[in-house]
Amino acid sequence: TLLGVITTDALVDADAWRKMVQIAVNRSFNQITVDGDTSTNDTIVALASGLSGSNKISALHSPEAKQLQACLDAVMQGLAKSIAWDGEGATCLIEVSVTGASSEAEAAKIARSVASSSLTKAAIYGRDPNWGRIACAAGYAGIPFDSNALRIALGDILLMDGGQPLSFDRSAASNYLKEAGDAHGTVKIQISIGDGPGTGVAWGCDLSYDYVKINAEYTT
Amino acid sequence: MSSVANEAATFIPAAPIFLPQGPWKQIAGGVTAAEGFKAAGMYGGLRALGQKPDLALVTCDVDAVAAGTFTKNVVAAAPVLYCKSVLEKSKTARAVLINAGQANAATGDAGYQDVIDCSNALSKLLQVSPDEILIESTGVIGQRIKKEPLLNSLPKLISLLSTSVEGADAASVAITTTDLVSKSVAVEFEVGGTRIRIGGMAKGSGMIHPNMG
């Protein structure tokens, strides 16, 4: 279950604040995944005291609102990434970035599809640079794209370009995954599906034996 | 039954926080960093095992503009239903009470009444309207909250409220379940020459695939 409380002393109109919080949640907590199970209790409450002495923010497109939105996004993303990093049994955080989609929402959906893929997550735990599983999860996200435009990189190592698999250095790519796992660090997967303006990011973690162990013992 | 706030952070370490780059500065503290907020965390006897804090409270000195996002799971827990109802009626809130140990999900009418009872008790102690109290629960699904230990702990929990970093840390530990680390962060930035702070805490480790609206 995900729970959270956000507080700010910004002075903000209630309707604007509620919209800003939903936007930030969509860019952060709604973009993480550990095991694909949506809880009965997930809740984020965000409170604004207005005690900073700032001017009241009421228009979403004002420069002040955009600044507050960016900061709210950052705080929620910081917390969201920590949850994925702390996923049950995880040895590393997985960050999936998608570019070239038609919209932010489409890019975000593809990114989360890859981050959610049990086979991709298991491959990363096995230190297997398995571009096929990444491509597969991007493909079934429900967002149509030209498979000949697909580009996949693992860290700085390009695995696939123009829809074609490349002859990459497998041991270097595997070592990239191993080092991230050994240090409980971050594995970065970068995907491009075309030349659209939409970008999105999702975060997950690898799938280890410990996940089953923890949840076999945590009873309802 | 209770452990004091400054002991809470010793139960689990703090998470690394991966803040994106931007015109903000990370500062100490979490939910108490912004003006007007206090927090506390303590062990109230709700967890099945151990004495890690399991009750957290965040309060605001003034009516805070309130927003909430909630699971879209059709089988939503009692505190989720309660909070949605409160935020439909009220645009402001004064306090958020969170328990770990029992999720109070799939507990039916009795579970919902438990939330009402907790909200009413806290509102009396804080002398605010029940419609300004929000409740969150996490833990084992299918179990009602251990209401008596929770209600008995409220006076102590309120006495521990603090604007300090320790108060925020204690609260962030108290909301954890299988988490190996607590998650808390605060940032500061300027808007139109005025310093604004945003802080936050979160928990989660398993059953994580949020779809909140």
Short description:
Chain A is of the alpha/beta class and 220 residues long.
Task: Note down, in words, how this protein is organized.
The complex is a heterodimer of chains A (220) and B (213). Chain A has 220 residues and is of the alpha/beta class. Helix content of chain A is 40%, strand content 22%. Chain A has helices at residues 14-26, 63-85, 104-116, 118-125, 131-139, 170-182, 209-217, and strands at 3-8, 43-48, 93-100, 151-154, 157-161, 164-165, 186-192, 196-205. In chain A, the strands form 2 sheets. Chain A has a 6-stranded mixed sheet. In chain A, strands 1-2 form a two-stranded parallel sheet. In chain A, strand 4 and strand 5 (157-161) form a beta hairpin. In chain A, helix 1 packs across helix 2 (63-85) and helix 3 (104-116) packs across helix 5 (131-139). Chain B has a 4-stranded mixed sheet with strand order 2-3-4-5. In chain B, strands 1-6-7 form a 3-stranded antiparallel sheet, covered by helices on one side. Chain B has 5 helices and 7 strands; from the N terminus they run H-E-E-E-H-E-H-E-H-H-E-E. Chain B is 27% helix and 30% strand. The model of chain B is unreliable at 1-5 (pLDDT under 50). Chain B is α+β, with helices and mostly antiparallel strands. Classes of the chains: A alpha/beta (220), B alpha+beta (213). Chains A and B meet through strand 1, helix 1, strand 2, helix 2 and helix 7 of A and strand 3, helix 2, strand 4, strand 5 and strand 6 of B.
